[in-house]
Design a protein that fits this description.
This protein has 292 residues and is of the alpha+beta class. The protein is built from 9 helices and 10 strands. It is elongated. It catalyses: Hydrolysis of DNA containing ring-opened 7-methylguanine residues, releasing 2,6-diamino-4-hydroxy-5-(N-methyl)formamidopyrimidine.
Length: 292
């Protein structure tokens, strides 16, 4: 799933490649992706992209005051195309293609644009065409952006104060902190040397400060690594920069212990026992049920 660093990098890429371009057409073969009807998606034709923003994991193209907003969900991605002039229409349901945006042709006849694709059978990629980003329910309910100046250790402390939620779940909750998902919550907690099962409200003042530093540093480093990288290469860059997430069974680069995993119904977390849990493995309930 694209998280804050990847969406920020996609926003930067589109600022360089899409801003100033008039939209020729928008095709939506993945009709289930379109969540709004007014303004109609066809109203984007003829408008010019004037800006690109990010709201948590939402990507926002301002098109002369009409906003084309997408959330790529778990299996979605954005693919830039230097020339879509020869691209044929796609029949609904016959392709991972959900949306295709074509821009006006360049002087050389090529028609650049981008496509939103979604892998897998669970279609969760969402597209909104709205007059104001505040019309998107997921944006209205977002918590603070962890890279914003106002996200201070004191602000984080206020969020954590009294919470009985495990810190892993709290970091992933978009209504609490915007933009962090499964992968970077694992990375943040490894950097903070903190168990994913630790109760959020139990952190001391020093613990809050350490967690804040891990959040900001981890995300900023990931954004910086992705800066200037083509959209098609961002997935590879994300994987190469992860220390624990997706690396169960491999060696921890910090201490040399073996990275372990806890599995859930539809996801899994990875952690280092030596760095994060005092050397003790966390209970994997799904594995325990299989062994009974």
């Amino acid at each position: 799933m694209p998280e804050l660093p990847e969406v920020e990098s996609l926003a930067g890429f589109l600022r360089e490649h899409a801003v100033g371009r008039p939209i020729a057409s928008v095709e939506v073969p993945g009709f289930q992706a379109l969540k709004t009807v007014d303004p109609p998606v066809t109203s984007l034709a003829g408008l010019t992209v004037t800006g690109v923003a990010r709201h948590g994991k939402f990507l926002d193209l301002d098109c002369d005051g009409i906003h084309f907003i997408t959330h790529l969900a778990r299996g979605g991605w954005l693919r830039w195309r230097d020339d879509l002039s020869g691209a044929k229409p796609v029949r609904p349901g016959k392709s991972p293609l959900a949306v295709r945006v074509r821009f006006a042709p360049d002087d050389d006849g090529r028609q650049p644009g981008f496509e939103l694709t979604e892998a897998g059978t669970q279609k969760r990629l969402a597209v909104y065409v709205v007059r104001d980003p505040g019309e998107v329910p997921g944006i209205v309910s977002l918590g603070p952006d962890p890279l914003a100046p106002e996200f201070t250790p004191e602000a984080l402390g206020a969020i954590l104060n009294g919470s009985r939620t495990r810190i892993k779940g709290l970091l992933r909750d978009q209504k609490v902190i915007a933009g962090i998902g499964n992968a970077y919550s694992d990375e943040v907690l490894h950097a903070a040397r903190m168990s994913p099962f630790k109760i959020a409200g139990s952190l001391t003042e020093d613990g809050v400060a350490e967690l804040h530093e891990a959040i900001v540093t981890t995300l900023r480093d990931a954004v910086e690594r992705s800066r200037g990288i083509a959209a098609k290469d961002l997935k590879t860059e994300k994987k190469s920069g992860l220390r624990v997430h997706g690396r169960a069974g491999q060696v921890c680069e910090v201490c040399g212990d073996t990275i372990k995993e806890v599995s859930f119904a539809d996801s899994a977390l990875q952690y280092c026992p030596t760095c994060q849990t005092g050397g003790k493995p966390l209970a994997d309930r799904r594995l325990s049920r299989l062994l009974k």
